[in-house]
Write a structure and sequence with these properties.
Four copies of one chain form a homotetramer. With 321 residues, chain A is of the alpha/beta class. The first copy, chain A, has twelve helices and eleven strands. The relative contact order of chain A is 0.13.
């Protein structure tokens, strides 16, 4: 369905999801900003859906088809209030395919919007994709209620979800509500219980959600943290640095949010310096600094869709070693 | 002007600002989310304006008139791309008045949207306000171009701003543009230069923008970082702790973004433990941890508009000391 | 599902409908205006759905809970381009119930948005409603495609409609498209064929869609055309006029659009004068004049939700007789 | 100013207008639909502004750059409630220029949104334009209040309009309000008085607003009513018909709304048949029928931007004569 703007698109996604279907929409920065209120609606109503944000150079309309990685923090904090975001970051055409399925699986399992945070480079790259036979794919579907179920919200263990029109008595509101959907806009206990449950259902399963690609993280002098298209330059830079005798370890974020703290903590124990190359003015860097408690070496590049090259990373690695 | 929704309101604000007037709109969480795209538009086009976000319990519609402090990170990261936010946090009726003027002054001086991030408690508190005589108020107006000026964008020193209809030849676009307003959506140099200038015009003046209230920050055992309504409980808790012999220092954030790193670094040098009480699940806390490189003691409370009391803070202070 | 604004609501309705469910949203004037673009989207994509517009005093926000009948022409012409509207007008609580079902039936049968145009009086009236047993209700469901069907659009006989996710290859766009959903934005033939089919599927079934309540239309001196809450005053006025010896005929519009031309033409042949009482400045009046080729007696009243009384109508009837 | 969507654009226009500037935005069908709520806001708050709708083939996205004339009725009835629309229709590049100025003049004089309803053909036609010297142009500016004025709304004689920020005490709301801007959402008298005044300020000046081009309207066998690009084919068809001995009269609508009833009534008295060629399925036709009380000969053509040719009109003229 091609809607007329992003407000209509994300609305249609929520409607389709509550009608019992899996639904997805794709956009880039400005559209992603316009969707923020409804994404919060989806978090609060526990609506499974997938939003693809193909990052391009912002802010504003910026450079419309030029690759960038500047929406990392927005994907975590773009809507108001205390919510938890699940954000995946592919770095190949193969992963665009696989992570889309994974995004749906996570959204169905945890009943929450999931963001597939691509960048223009990865979204448009032309590569061979291995599409497995249908039966070998893992497909997760939301848990359906039993006929007598009445509690459809606010469980850390993820409540079952009826479809509209099936005969369940369910009110769906982004106002604070209890487990049966009844609004409670006065008083602390219900609000506290629900918001904590909505966050806990994600954070208590963080180890299931967080995925990283790791290389030598326990045994390196220089560590690199990267994601998306930039991580492909890291592969080559690491190889060349190792050829030159520098022990490089890296964490590549397949899941950006929840932020994979454990892998990065391990890397930080081993590495003397941590380099964070990213196509923005330093967003992931701040998060790595928060976790590791020390300054990282930032390598930032923006504009025109120009990628950070292996040479640029290698140069920083060699200086840092 | 009472518009029909938040999209129209923030649009009207931008229109009025380019027509040469000072313009402001006020909203709370959901409306603030809906405004995010246009706030990015304002950053990119360097449009002075003030957005008041009176925080209430979110996410979603949440609890509509219940105080909260959950939009701190959104106020910094809510729109896409690399931008810099100026965000002020009043803690009294007097400051609601003064910071509104200050928000306008900063927006006019730096030609950028400024957020007045209140919470429901401070926005509705009933207190005596001292309104100074007009002539004693500092009022900043945007710099007006000379008749021969042609460069209206992208200066770290802040470019002059014509009003629409005055006869200047000016195109206003949130696409990447050069100093005269010409779109450049290909190529890195213009984008890099402009985005760096837009961020630098704020960060290079951070010391002018950042304001804090400080108490004993160089000479304390326990430090507290707070803002908004919560900071008023800190005053009393600190007093009572000191009476009990605990040396307490605190930083109260009058400016939240850019985040006042210097004051907090000083506090961190002196204090053994830093406590961050806030009416959310821990947003400022993360930022303090990033800057200080160590874990803080979090004191969080959400729901029903219940404030964090002096007793609750005092208890944590005594345990931490 | 309670969405955050009307743009999101109508988007969610479209999403749910293409996910295979029946979907409805309710609003009043300002929200109805905001939905106009997406209602056109629904017409063009042949999306069954129901929009309830409870008319109140406009334009703008007007008087928010005060009854009015001022959206008659907007319900027909509110979105752009050549489209056909189906609009129903209940005049009792019983009909609010029955016409809602009928609106769904018409929307499913003709695959098009249907508007239930109530007024605040009828929407809030408190009356006994007879709810028939489920099995005695006529429920129409959209025609589902056979597995080999590939033509899902643009048939005067109404094409079958797949649900998204069932495996049919279907693109849904409000750009001009052919019977299989392929976009054709150049050239006249496809556009002409499709737009004519979309209009014809409604107008060629107008006799199935148009419903009126008729009284003495072939045998009267004075005719009255009315709808909604106003028609209830007509009942009493007609009775009293007849008691006074005036032969009164009336047409009550249960369907407003397509406009029931035949019934009104019959009335016009018999009646010397036609009176059109309505709570607006004269919208239905114009249409009656267009059809009958003569001026009608207008009886208009707006503001404060004040109804047109039987006495007011009676007075006009007596003067006209 | 290039805003991110039509909601933002029309909002910015209203903001700029209340900031004291003349403001305009341009769009086509889908954007025009999206603007409908705010256009009603502008009518109710008496905000001078100009909206250009360049008609293309709808409904929905339709055929995006293909000429059409399908928004005639929407331009009159697109928003809710009882309002009066001023809509101009140019038929040359020269008139695009002149009518834009005229649209501003009318909007300033009557404090109301004015629609310049072009079609894609006229908006993109390449013709010599005669731009007169500035001093010879008639430029109307809104009436400014005297310092002691307090009544800024709801006068049939058009109230003076302050700019925001000048120090006048003025509330601007699209809710029903009285002459000083005070909201009155209960009770009939204020609503009735204001809505009648807002409509009367336009209809009582209809003779100043309505403009037509007339040819032989008192002395013809066949009459033609047309507007926009179609009227250019009428010129040639009329000439050729007259050469063939058929007396042709025509009215070309320079103002479409308020609909020029007088000119058309005169034409109808003289002509035996009235032909209405238009690039839609028959919108103006209905209005001509309403006024003249008889059926017209409709000549409709849609799709692909194909114009109605002089030959097509000529053929209908010859058959009708």
């Amino acid at each position: 369905m091609q809607m007329e703007d992003e407000l209509a698109s994300i609305g249609a996604v929520m409607g389709a999801s509550w009608a019992g279907r899996k639904a997805m929409t794709a956009t880039s920065g400005p559209g992603f900003s316009l969707m923020q209120e409804t994404i919060g609606w989806g978090f609060m109503t526990e609506t499974p859906c997938v939003v693809v944000d193909v990052q391009r150079a912002g802010p504003g309309t910026g450079q419309a088809t030029k690759s960038a990685q500047g929406d990392v923090m927005q994907a975590r904090w773009g809507t108001h209030g205390d919510y938890a975001a699940i954000v995946l970051s592919p770095n190949s055409a193969q992963e665009m395919f696989e992570f889309t399925i994974r995004a749906f699986n996570l959204s169905e399992r945890y009943r929450t919007p999931v963001v597939l945070l691509a960048d223009e480079t990865i979204a448009h790259v032309r590569e061979r994709v291995n599409v497995p036979r249908g039966e070998s794919l893992e497909i997760v579907n939301r848990r359906h209620p039993d006929p007598r179920d009445t509690r459809f919200f606010g469980s850390e263990a993820v409540a079952p979800m009826p479809a509209v029109g099936e005969g369940f008595n369910v009110a769906v509101t982004a106002s604070t509500h209890d487990e049966v959907g009844m609004r409670f806009t006065q008083g602390a206990p219900v609000h506290r219980r629900m918001i904590e449950a909505l966050n806990a259902k994600i954070y208590s399963h963080a180890s299931d959600i967080m995925e990283t690609e790791r290389h030598n993280i326990e045994n390196c002098d220089v560590g690199i943290v990267s994601f998306g298209c930039t991580s492909r330059s890291v592969y080559e830079a690491a190889e060349r640095a190792e050829t030159a005798g520098v022990r490089v370890g890296y964490v590549r974020l397949k899941t950006i949010w929840p932020f994979p703290e454990d892998a990065i903590s391990v890397l930080a124990k081993s590495a003397n310096r941590i380099i964070v190359p990213e196509m923005n003015l330093g967003q992931t860097s701040g998060e790595v600094e928060r976790i590791t408690g020390r300054k990282v070496v930032r390598l930032n590049k923006i504009g025109g869709g120009e990628l950070i090259t292996p040479e640029e990373i290698l140069e920083v690695v060699m200086r840092a070693s």
